[in-house]
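Reopening this ticket.

The earlier resolution said the output was attached, but the attachment link was broken on my side. Pasting everything inline this time so it's all in one place.
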Amino acid sequence: MTARHLIPVLLPLCFACDLFSTRDPEPPDTAQSNWIVPLTPEQVILNLQNAVYEKNTENYIRCLPDSSWNTADFFFEPDPEVAAEYGGLFQGWSLINEEAVMRQVFSLIPGGNTCYLLFSDEEWELYGSDEAIYSASYHLELDHTQAGVDSVFEGLAVYYLSPDSRGEWSIYRWRDNGISGRTSWSRLKAAFGG
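Inline output:
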């Protein structure tokens, strides 16, 4: 049988099998996020807030320098009171520590519970095209289930930001300062990182 003879036989089969109709799209394998490629320092801060809101550890860490693209090492300077209380916990604090703490914290926040980060009294200092300093008061609320650890953290954050070789900005240095009578972000890190 030649190809010319097969066409009348195969053509009705193609339509009967509905080969030409579109199918419903499959859901994505990963959760959607509000990540923005951080081409400005301001976008890093927005990404950080979104990562906290979404409890997305990967995006949280993406706000900090990636050694594949960035020559700057990450450095966290804790609130002096917390640093004194916890001895050498923060010496050599790295992205690994940062990721472990936030992964654990996010895992302890049930689905519908509150999780957000707000900044106020924001100030920006820009130094040419390769460095920015952002300072602000923060209010971090994490409605977690860990007994004995506060769920509201407040203080003053100073973030030093720079672009990497791709032109994407990140926080390479983070200084945390507590406020009297409030629980600082440093204390959260100490509670889950110690």
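Reporter confirms the inline version is readable. Strands lie at 75-77, 115-127, 131-142, 152-163, 169-178. The longest strand covers residues 115-127.
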